[in-house]
Amino acid sequence: MSMKDVLLKKINRREIIVGVVGLGYVGLPLAVEKAKAGYKTIGFDVQVSKVEMVNRGINYIGDVVDSELKELVENGMLSATCDFSFIKGVDLVAIAVPTPLDEYQQPDISYVRDSTIAIAQYLQKGSMVVLESTTYPGTTEELILPLLEQHTGLKCGEDFYLAFSPERVDPGNLVYKTKNTPKVVGGVGQDATEVIAGIYRNVLEGEVFEASSPKIAEMEKILENTYRNVNIGLINELTMLCNKMNINIWEVIEAAKTKPFGFTPFYPGPGLGGHCIPLDPYYLSWKAREYGFHTSMIEASMMVNDRMPEYTVERVGKILNRFKKALNGSKVLILGIAYKGDIDDYRESPAIRVINQFVKFGSIVEYYDPYIKEYQERGESIKGLPELTAEKLKQADIVVITTNHTKGIDYHLIQENANYIFDTKNAMKSVKNRNNIELL
After folding, report:
1. pLDDT (tens digit, 9 = 90+) per residue, 352-398?
2. Interior angle at CA 385, CA 379 and CA 391, nearest 5
3. Which stretches of 323-410 are DSSP H helices?
4. What value does the mean pLDDT take over residues 42-62?
5. Using an 8 Å Cβ cutoff, are 339 and 349 in contact?
6. pLDDT computed for residue 81 by the predictor
7. CA distance 333 to 351
């Protein structure tokens, strides 16, 4: 019986053991869903604290249901370890580790490389490896494949299967979770694609699209997020123009989105945050240079979006100037550190860049976020206000809303007590008295 047939039989009988490397925003929800589908799952992570929390059934990811995690751990369907030797007993290894940018805005694939080498030490014949981390096109075949073959002595396609299946996690999304979001799988060879896609079909409710190669799957993920980056860049640039023309961009968008075809609404803000949208275009631009190609439109949108934190502070400076105040010495209260509303994730959050810009100009900055009581910045812990009070609002020269939280913030309290409000997210659209509110 061929390796393909053996694996398909084990998959359908729920006999394979799944390993997930990286237990963060992508990895832990993925591990939970695979365990819920009846596959015994082992999570691997270098952070001891995460491993210990999982093994105690303690959840730390917003998109995971606490009770489900606890039940899976208690039933022996899910466990975690820092010991990669347990890869020996795993049939499928999913890699879901960070792929940040380095100080030169180039892809840092050290986590992917290190994880691959760690896996290779224990990978057995007849296993499957799938990369879920967002990265540049070519990573699977140009980096992971040779590393696995070199360190194992096994042959890809004959002794093990390899594929790329991009994560599509959207923290805080109330409709689409890991379970019901469509999946794309691109394997090295049709057999790898078919087998690994078969696992996802048994785990997830959404459609599983079989791409013809890992590069197709890698590029489609970059396209998803670059599409958003470019369109947000367009809206941010129009926001700057509309401000000069004394036109409300938010109302312009509301009017435009009444068209039932040919228009998708995107919204302005103080910058882009999260692990994907601000970073992915850089992966593509970096890889494009290998082919002597410059992604001019993409790079232009990145420049616009990267400037938005500074533009936000400039606008605040002009508002304060109307009240005969300078940025230097003014008390600024920031509302929202999370990169999007109703989550506790501040990765690449533009709010932090806004704060740093205010501090650079000598402003006295405090922040409040009901989801984030403190955050880490260059090794320093920055604590927020324990609660948002009328007194704190009155003390601030200006309140700047940088995240559109819908829970945990009383916008009517803010309007009634703030001296002035600069709302970069139109979070206060339901507040009727708008005399002290200005929009981005």
Report:
1. 999 999 999 999 999 999 999 999 988 889 999 999 999 999 999 99
2. 150
3. 350-360, 390-395
4. 94
5. yes
6. 96
7. 11
pLDDT band at 275 (very low <50, low <70, confident <90, very high): confident
In angstroms and rounded to an integer, the radius of gyration of the C-alpha atoms of the chain is: 24
Q: What does the DSSP 8-state code read for residue 107? A: B
Domains of the chain by range and CATH? 3-212 (3.40.50.720), 227-439 (3.40.50.720)
Do 73 and 54 meet the contact criterion of CB atoms below 8 Å apart? Answer: yes
Distances from the Cα of 420 to the Cαs of 348, 385, 434, in angstroms?
27, 19, 10
| C-beta of residue 45 within 8 angstroms of C-beta of residue 22 | yes
pLDDT in tens, 211-222: 999 999 999 999
Respond yes or no: is residue 242 known to be catalytic: no
At 334, list the tokens.
């920031």
| Cα distance between residue 428 and residue 418, in whole Å | 13
Helix (H, G, I), strand (E, B) or coil at 96: coil
Side chain identity at 308, as an amino acid letter? M
- Is the C-alpha dihedral spanning 307, 312, 318, 324 positive or negative? negative
**Do the bridges between strand 127-131 and strand 160-164 make them parallel or antiparallel, or are there none, so unpaired?**
parallel
Can you give the pTM of this predicted structure?
A: 0.91
What tokens does 149 get? 């073959």
Is 12 within 8 Å of 6 (Cβ atoms)?
no
How does DSSP assign 24-63, residue by residue? STTHHHHHHHHHHTT--EEEE-S-HHHHHHHHTT----TT
Task: Identify the helix (H) or strand (E) that includes residue 241.
Answer: helix 214-244
User: Residue 103: is its pLDDT beyond 90?
Assistant: no
pLDDT at 239 over 90: yes
User: Please, which pLDDT band fits residue 22 given cuts at 50, 70 and 90?
Assistant: very high
